Amino acid sequence: MTAAPAVRTIASVADAARARAAVDRVATDGGVPAVDRVRFRTALTARLRRCLGRGGAWELRIQVRPATAEQDGRVDVSLRPAGPRPPGPAGDEADDEPSLTCPLPHRPAEGGLGAGLPLSEALLRADEDTAAVLRLLDEREHLLRLHREELHQTNQGVLALHADLEAAARAQRALLDAERAARAEAERARRLLTFLGDASAAVTASLSHTAILRCLSALLVPEYAEHVDVWLFDEEHEEHEEKEDSEDGGGERPRAAPGPPGPGPEHPAAAVTAARTGRPQHAAPHPGNLPGVDDLPPAARSPRRPLLALPLAARRLLGVLTLTAPGPRFDADTTVMLVELARRVGIALDNARRYEQYRDTAETLQRAQLTDLPTVPGLLLAARYLPATRGLNIGGDWYDAFRQPDGSLLAVIGDVTGHGLHAAVVMGRLRTALRAYAVADDATPGRVLTQLHRMLRHLQPGLYATALIARIRPGEREVVWASAGHPPAVVRDDAGTVRVLDAKPGVMPCAYPDHVAGLPPGSSLVLYTDGLVERRARGIDPGIERLDRALAALSTPELEQDPDAAADALLKTLLYDSERDDDVCLLLCHAEAGPEPRGEAARSAGRAEPAAGGAARGSVEVIRREGGRRESL
């Protein structure tokens, strides 16, 4: 428990001396070191002098606080006026100063505050503390002399080594300069290799000639070239080289152009020489002495700036890349990197050309096997096929429409897994087999799909396909359909209500049942492949709902007057906001509402590109597909 503070009245110098002696005794009994006692006593004396200088009576409060678990023991001393505050100099706030605090290592003896010491004894004790401080100062001065001597000796050693250090510093600077140059060279080589890797990845990421050349210009200008030109040879030049290869028996020979045009306003002499020799060429007022590059006189179009012509070659010479130097000359290391980049660009261009040839062949085969729409009384037909805008996703989607022996129309839509020539060939086989199975007297959509499934499992067990067949008899108000894992067909009635034709799969995976749906006059049946409605980020169901709304937006007069325009409107609505990752097939069958059938011109086959769509009319009635497993062919 903290004891009550001791209060002493200070009215004279003697009172101040006795009070200081009492505080000093508390600090001495508390085990405060002599130096700390002197500091504490000196601070207290300075405050006492200020108070005595202002006159009046003052109260000196001495509070001893024993040590606790939270804090150490200490003594607090504060001065306050005993009566009204005496006037003092302006800005003097001595009575507002915080208490003086001195830590007490030990608890002082009881009664130490009130006993006090005679002034003579307090003076002697103060002299003892002063002597202790002086001894400490003597020790510090002795240590300071020792340190000064040691510093002097160290300075002598430093001066003695200064000349050696200066020589070593000069040698170190030379080594650092050499290391800095080596690091700069290594960093430059690393930067060139990094650029070569990034540029190679960029030019090989696309299979489009235009994208590759645009990317190449963006990569090289302005850091590595002021201007870039690419001269690509035409197909006739390549066919000439292929003919020479076959005549040589496929042996190795220089890949040089047989006869590119001479120098002129279109191609500088260096580019022509590079095309003829198949070697990089450097044209400048001064020899470049670049590794693996031949030197030529300066170009007429760029007499002051060096010109570098690099062949673009893969299996054969495809063209020439011409670069104008961004500065006074081409660097040797940069030239080596540019020659290697030109080689990789040639490979990328060759891959793009092969890809385009393969894609064009697959698309041509695909279109050649698509049927011409027949003329059916009371029915209007329109079909569309659109290849994918990117990737090799062509060759798998197909449609067909033909009349059976009994006069009914069989409308077919299908999708073969895989793409390219193989998918197009398999699609042709399925189309031929389907027509053969449909000739039978008892051929229904479900039976045709079942037979097609068995044939596909026998000939191509690892291949999967989906298909939907719908049979429409002229004059009847219904459609018979069967599906093998294909996206569901949709029907729009004369009032604009849209229904989704979907049902649970059959009990047996190899047997597909027939389903019947109403198709009264004025109704439209739409068959399609998944490329029309499916998007990677959203799935197929939102796409089917968009198709429903687009079909409901068309009117019956629009469908009857121009079914081709209606098909284009559907394609435009569903494909305007995305690139086609897959090819698209659409088959539109409209049952005429009038008594007279339309002419053959209104039933012609579909065009290749969509046109504008119709106005928004009708309503959408989406019938959710039931759960269960979908079976494909």
Brief summary:
By secondary structure, this protein is an alpha+beta fold.
Provide a count of the helices. 13
Number of strands: 19
Could you describe the largest sheet, including whether it forms a barrel? 5 strands, mixed
Principal-axis shape equals elongated
Q: Summarize the amount of helix as a percent range.
A: 40-55%
Question: What's the arrangement of strands in the largest beta sheet?
Answer: 5-9-8-6-7
Binned strand content: 15-25%
Task: Tell me about this structure.
This protein is α+β, with helices and mostly antiparallel strands and 633 residues long. The C terminus is likely disordered. The protein contains 13 helices and 19 strands. Strand 11 and strand 12 form a beta hairpin.
Structure characteristics:
disordered C terminus; 5-stranded antiparallel sheet; 19 strands; 42% helix; 5-stranded mixed sheet; 633 residues; 13 helices; alpha+beta
